[in-house]
Every structure is written in C-alpha cells, then in structure tokens.
Amino acid sequence: MRSTLFTIPHEFADLPVFGFGWGLILLAIALIVRLVILRRLQKHAFSDFLSSEAIMWGVLALAVVIVLPMVEIKNIDGAPVGMAIRGYGVMLLIGVLTAVGLAMLRTRRRGIDPEVIINMAPWVFIGGIAGARLFYVIQYRDRFIGDSLSETVRGILTFTEGGLVVYGGFIFGVLAAVFFVVRHRLPVLKLGDAIVPCMFLGLFFGRMGCLLNGCCYGGQCAEYWAALHFPVGSPVYVEQLEKGVLVGLEIDESSGRIESVRKGSLADKAGISSGSRVERIRLDDRYLRDVPKDRPIERAPRGLLMLVDGKTYQWSPDQLPPRAEAVQPAQLISSFSAICLCGLLCAASYVFRREGAIMMLGFASYAVLRFGLEWIRVDEKGQFGTSLSISQWVSVMVLAGSVAGLIWIYRRGAIQSVPTANT
C-alpha cells in the first residue's frame, strides 16, 4: 500500500500552486499553445474549438481555481500543507489513458475516425467520475457530513483518495457517451463494441489504485499465500481497530457482547474475558497532537479507548499491532478479472460480428463477476431486507438488461435479414 506517492507544496516562490496561482498560469499557457496549434492545422480552428473543447477547458479552470484548493491536505491546525498525489489518482489516470489509446485503435479498425474518441473522452471521464463519486456519497452519506458546509463539500470532492463506485461510473459514463454520440450522430452500437472492452483495461489499473490506497478491501480471512495485510492508518486497519479485532476481540455488533477473546492478545493480557459487554469503543485522538505541523493529519496513528462492564481500557499507538489482520485480496482479484475480461472481449470481437453484441456481452460478464466479487468484499451491507449488497442488486439489473439487449440485437438482425416482397 502506498496511498500518497508525493506531495505538491501549498505554495512556491510565495505564490499558491492552486487557486489563483501557478496552476492557473500553466493552464493558460497550455490553452494558448493549443489554440496556436489549431490555428496552424485548421482553417476554422476557433469555431471547432468552441464546439468541442471550450467546455472542457472551462471545467479545468474551475477545478484549478475552486476544487483543488478545497482538497489540499491539512495539518493539525487545519492549515493547507499541499496537494497529495495519490497512488489511486495516478493509477486512475493511467487507466484512462490506456483505455483511450486502446479505444482509438479499435475504432480505427472499424472505420471510425479515432479523433472521435479524443473528443468523447473528456465527456465520458467527467461523467464517469461524477457518477462514481455520486453513487459512493449516496451509499456512505453519513461519512460526508462535516462540521461545516465547506468540510462536507471537501469530503465529497476528494475522490482521488478513493471512494468511487464502479457501477456509478459505468452508468454516468455511458450516459455521457450516449449524449455525445447522439449529438454527433455517430453509430451507437459500433462505437459501443469498440469502447466497452477498453473500459475493463481502465478498471484493471483503477483496482491497482485501490490496492495502493487500501480501499475496496476483502473480508478478514485465515493466513494463506495471497492474503493481504494493510498498515496503520489504512481503512481496513481503522475498521478492525474500531471493531476490537486488533486487540483480540470478537464482538457481537447488535448486543456488544464479547463472544471470544484471542489468547495472548492485548485484550487477554488486560484481563478482558468473553461474556463481558462492550459499552463504548472509539479511537483515541489525543496522540494526534504529537504530529508535526508541517505534516498532514490524515491517517496519523491513533490509540484505542474501550469501556467494558464499566471499566475503561486504553492502548496507545505504540502498543497496537503494526498492521491489520489478514484480508482477502479483493483488489487483486478484481484487477485480474478486469484484464482477463478485456482480453476475452477483444478476442470475441473476431467471433461475434453483430453490432452491439460485444457491448452487451461486456456488461453481462462484468455483472456476473461483480456479483461474485461482493461475496469476497464485505464493505457493503445487504439492502432491501436481503443479504445482497446494492452492487449485487445493480448486477442483477445490468445482467437482465444485457440479456434483453442481446436478444433484441439478434432478433433485430434476423428481421432485417428477411427479404421483403417486391410491390
């Protein structure tokens, strides 16, 4: 796990990097260079720019001036330290670039100008990220309610730290692509066949980003060759700490009753026994005061406070384990499945020639894979009075829609192939 690769400082040469500072200056230079290139290559460069790229550049400017300053990491006093370049965000960017490159290759082989992909990519990317984040915020809305509106907005916008739902990205990304395709009167099914396999190449890198970030982890498991252990401050470490797992307890969540105490654990050494009742358990933030002010406060080590049968127990960060208990490698399984699905769909393109078939097969295949993956991941609770997570319910709907789409595609082809009588 490597959540932060490096940090861009808050300011350079007494000028902020983000907001009205260096970032906006560099963006303005890039825009000027782009306009100069278009002017030399095309006769009607400016009109083409307004129709295809103006919105994108406007969104980028708003991001540099408003969004990025809000998501800078803070120190113990709440002052900005800088912009953390996340492993998750970098892998997400690599995924987008590789997916776009493969999509350009596949569209060229289908007789479509690859420039279409370049013009479509910003729409799909922005729509996909917005949808993926929206689904995550709705699903875990309680996590994003801060002490102020600015804190709430900041929490919602920090998607580069993880917290994207793939299905939300697919749905909104597809909607954005459909909008672009319809607007420019392009062949929907043919483009869908070219693009959908590439989405899974992007997902391959995206899930590797999840591994670096420590999110989207699997359930706790016994030690074996593929099991993963995440370090202090990772999401799974915090979860296991809050549940008492790292001090050796197995607690019934509904009653707070301690069902078992692992022999030789911190809880066992403290004299806690099974059958006792945990009245309160929370992280101890007093140790955050020792974090230097030039360092971000995020994921700093914390202690643990626990009230059991009226008696208080506490453990400092130095006493707690240096890593989480073993969990299933859900990120690696998802990443490996995605790259396999990308390869299989690309190969299937030589077999299934009916337009739209590869697109529907891609949706259906991922629905089946994601449904099974949810049994390995345990970060989503059952919905609608069942044990099925929201992603499993969406998988069922996507699978049903994909099968219906395949039936329609092949019936449509059969009807079109029937010769009509001369009149």
From TrEMBL:
The keyword ATP-binding does not apply. This is Phosphatidylglycerol--prolipoprotein diacylglyceryl transferase. The keyword Glycosyltransferase applies. The chain crosses the membrane at residues 20-37, 49-71, 83-105, 117-136, 156-182, 194-214, 332-352, 359-378, 390-410. It is found in: Cell membrane. Belongs to the Lgt family. It comes from Novipirellula artificiosorum. Its EC number is 2.5.1.145. It holds the Pfam family LGT. GO terms for biological process: lipoprotein biosynthetic process. Pathway: Protein modification; lipoprotein biosynthesis (diacylglyceryl transfer). GO terms for cellular component: plasma membrane. It is a multi-pass membrane protein. One of its GO terms (molecular function) is phosphatidylglycerol-prolipoprotein diacylglyceryl transferase activity. A 1,2-diacyl-sn-glycero-3-phospho-(1'-sn-glycerol) binds at R207. Keywords: Cell membrane, Glycosyltransferase, Lipoprotein, Membrane, Transferase, Transmembrane, Transmembrane helix. The gene is lgt. It is an enzyme of class 2 (transferase).
